[in-house]
């Protein structure tokens, strides 16, 4: 094979984030990319030059694979697809989606086959689970319909319920299918600092209720993890946490995304679509970056919070839902209210139980376990072994200000792992920048807590307990609040 041809295909193979194989006309492996070796636990010396059917001692001698490759060679077909279920030697039973086609790029007009492999095991399991749910729910509703067939009204109600549940399950399935494609950090929240313990205490306080929660904090502090922790400890945990990022969608699509639309409601709406509020009925809806919600939609969101009802775009019929709302923002919503960019009444509705996620610079004792966790996670993904973090490296990380918080820490550690040629972590980012000037205006967590409690007390005219009191707004028992006031030396002047 000409060197230039091989170089071009090497670049193509390595720029693709799924396993790829390049086969010659004899069906021998010419080249494979890094993802192939990682996925199937094989090595280049046991792969290149080997007949595809003989890989891993004949484990790849799969009838469907033979049929696919022979079809391509005999009929010059491009982009053939097959789905196979196979028990691979090193990785066990998997469901793989194969995509292959014959190509003619060689100057000598030799034939080569590019074979793409996608592991769809998890997606298929999720798909089967959702189909089973639909089948089970549909069977239950059919039995209910059969029992009530003598009464026409009940039968009609049952049919309406079937239609509603099918639509909701279809919408939830579509939502979960999208979620499967995303990479989520499902690991536990890492750290044991007092500030993080206080946050987790607040999570434990509020999880079992249906109270609206507002999660505050800088970018990258892990606000979504806190939302998932609240949902995971709630009575609604058996349903999906439905998420909408208000900053990621254009203003003209957010309303349709939240509340849904009817067919023909606007140009391009060729079918009816359930909004996230309907998908989250009986579950939890997480509205991330709530400060980015357009002003004209804030009144509609306020109505859902107050009455639990709304209308789809293009349909005047009122829909009622039971949804627990968790919101998050890195903005100062009080300032947004003052500047006229956020409704004051919506702010009061959202700020029932605020939880502030502390920045990483206030969780210095959490940095070592976070570093260990991310180094191991990234090393496994990249096929490396990093088992030593020099004291000097850890000190540099601990002394840095981390304006991007945990997200920035993960990015710095990924670059460090990539650039480490041995088992010792090598830091490539310069973390020696001084942030001493920021200390002049920073307050301790205790001072911030004192200011916040005083502000709420002033707002309630120093009413400690009872309806519309400071204790109710803060979500604290009145004796707990009085204890905090004594400790922080809070008295009415």
UniProtKB/TrEMBL annotation:
The keyword DNA-binding applies. SMART domains: AAA. Keywords: ATP-binding, Coiled coil, DNA-binding, Nucleotide-binding, Transcription, Transcription regulation. GO terms for molecular function: ATP binding; sequence-specific DNA binding. One of its GO terms (biological process) is regulation of DNA-templated transcription. PROSITE patterns: SIGMA54_INTERACT_1, SIGMA54_INTERACT_3, SIGMA54_INTERACT_4. CDD domains: AAA. The keyword Kinase does not apply. It comes from the Bacteria. This is Sigma 54-interacting transcriptional regulator. The lineage of its organism: Bacteria, Pseudomonadati, Thermodesulfobacteriota, Desulfobacteria, Desulfobacterales.
